[in-house]
Amino acid sequence: MGVYIRGDGEHLGDWGPVRKRTSFSRYELTSIRPRNRDLSLLELLLVLITVSLLQVSSVKAGGMMSLAIDDLGSLWMWGNCPQQSSSSEAEFSLVSSHIPLPVWNFHGHTVVKVACGNEHVVALVSAGETHTGDDLVCYSWGNNSHGQLGLGDSDSRLRPEVVETFNQESPWSVYEVACGAFHTALLAHKKRPSDTLVSVCWTFGLGENGQLGHGTTKSASLPEPVNGLPQNVFLISIDCGLFHTSVVSSAGEVWSWGMEKGLGLCPDASFTGTDAGDAVSPLLISCDGIYGPKFPGPLQVACGAAHTVLAADDGYKLWSWGRGRSGVLGNGKTIDSFIPSIVLWPPLSEDFKEERVDAVEKNEEKDPKGITEMEKKLSTAMEEMKLLCSKLSTVEQYVSILHGLIFGKPFEERDIPISLQNSGTFEIAKEWENMLESADRSKLLGLEMFYRNMLAGVKDKLMKRRIQEIIKECLNSTQETSQK
User: What keywords appear on the UniProt entry (predicted)?
Assistant: First the structure.
């Protein structure tokens, strides 16, 4: 504990342990009040200076709330947050805060990691005053209607409670946390030293879309290991979308599971066959091209509601996949991509703009009319290129949907016929024959089912039209007879 004393020796108040320089969190400052008098101008100035030294070290957002950890390890919340209460019997509710408010419960400890879902929060907090090695304890609070707090029941909590699987005495050391809308995912490794550092992914909460990766669609109110991940891997990053989860290993392997085969909220995804629908166990996401099948130099994985982004190659490259609306995949298109596509990073357009501005500035004095004409031509060319990109995006979307309907899987670059790749021409009869020759039994059965359904649909439509014609002829004949 620290004591605040004026120059004349009068005791003003005290506060919790000061862990760094002379600064301390704002909620610790609230106890620095004089006894039966107001703060002097000098004392107020000291308080303001101290508060201004506070820095944010990390932030998180989810649902309708925001979280921040300051450089002293204090946690702040704002938005639609669980109401803080000292009573364990108070009814759970969310309150709206327009400014950051401190979470009082971790006073004297250091909050290291935090994540939040729609209405729940999970934090990794030091057992002691400061974070030292494998001492993190997992706390959770908020809405618990699906067991997303990992406390063994479905009762909501107003105050943080320890997730006993990862308490101070646990053999597991938890080091990463992520939250979906109604589920939670953690990464942990054994505390005791071993020859190889391996980790385990734990999940709990809502499981109806397979987002827990337990091999079923059942929910879980206690942490359970994900079913299907290799044992001898070290997982470095994890994140959750609304209803899907993704992890990446230090070796560059990426797994996803949950809604729409681990893609997330993608209702337009067209999958057929036995592997259609949600993925209840991890699916390995391969990197195509010269880098595959593993992603080089992985750093972090992040999930949106319906897409996933991976930072790799030590930060020099980005991959993305999932729903492509609004250009969230960053690959220059707005169509869905069911396999990883390279994000256009760094943005070449910005470099082009800089070079263009430099060239214009250098030649502006020489020939203003020529520059204006060049600007017009360049603008026209850019508009044409934009139109072509839009048309290409539409064609690719059509091809992907059609290919999915016929073959039961998304269109990939390796599906482009060899003759088209080599010569730019496409001999449809020859390619069709080659495709049939190379197809296995399941693919042939899928083709048979597709064309059988398509033919049946055509016959049905022809039959309906013929019936309409017959009815029309009968009505006309009846009218003519009655007129006679």
Answer: Repeat
The verdict on 157 and 137 lying in the same domain is yes
* Residues 201 and 325 placed together within one structural domain of the fold: yes
Q: What is the per-residue pLDDT across 221-278, written as a single tens digit (0 to 9) for each?
A: 999 999 999 988 999 999 999 999 999 999 999 999 999 877 776 555 554 444 557 9
Q: Kindly state the DSSP code that residue 23 receives in the 8-state scheme.
A: B
Bond preceding residue 293 cis, omega within 30 of 0: yes
Distance separating alpha carbons of residues 52 and 422, to the nearest angstrom: 64
Same domain assignment for residues 315 and 363: no
Q: Are residues 137 and 23 located together in one domain of the fold?
A: no
Q: What is the DSSP string of 424-456?
A: S---HHHHHHHHHHH--HHHHHHHHHHHHHHHH
**Which token pair is 4?**
């605040």
For residues 308 and 321, the answer to whether their CB atoms sit within 8 Å is: yes
Whether residues 259 and 338 share a domain: the answer is: yes
User: Position of tokens 């256009």?
Assistant: 344
Q: How many domains does the chain have?
A: 4
Q: Which amino acid is at 271?
A: F
Asked if the peptide bond before residue 160 counts as cis, ω within 30 degrees of 0, the response is: no
What is the enclosing helix (H) or strand (E) of 90? none
Which residues, in sequence order, are CB contacts of 29 under 8 Å at separation 6+? Answer: 15, 47, 50, 51
Q: Tell me the Ramachandran region of residue 288: left when phi exceeds 0, alpha when psi lies from -120 to 50, beta otherwise.
A: beta
Beta bridge partners of residue 77, listed in sequence order? 67, 101
Annotate 195-227 with DSSP letters as a single string: SS--EEEEEEE--TTSTT-SSSS--EEEEEEPT
Does residue 265 fall inside a structural domain?
yes
CA pair distance 55, 57, nearest whole angstrom: 6
Single-letter residue type at 363: N
Distance separating alpha carbons of residues 272 and 259, to the nearest angstrom: 15
| Domain membership flag for residue 290 | yes
- HSE at residue 255, side-chain half, CA atoms within 13 A, is 23
- Give the domain extent around 46: 2-52
Count other Cβ atoms within 10 Å, centred on residue 459.
10
- Do 236 and 336 reside in the same domain of the chain? yes
**Radius of gyration of the chain from its Cα atoms, rounded to whole angstroms:** 31
Angle (nearest 5°) at CA 355 between 351 and 360: 145
Statement to judge: residues 134 and 211 lie in one domain? yes
For 113-165, the pLDDT digits (tens) are: 999 999 999 999 999 998 988 899 999 999 999 999 999 999 999 999 999 99
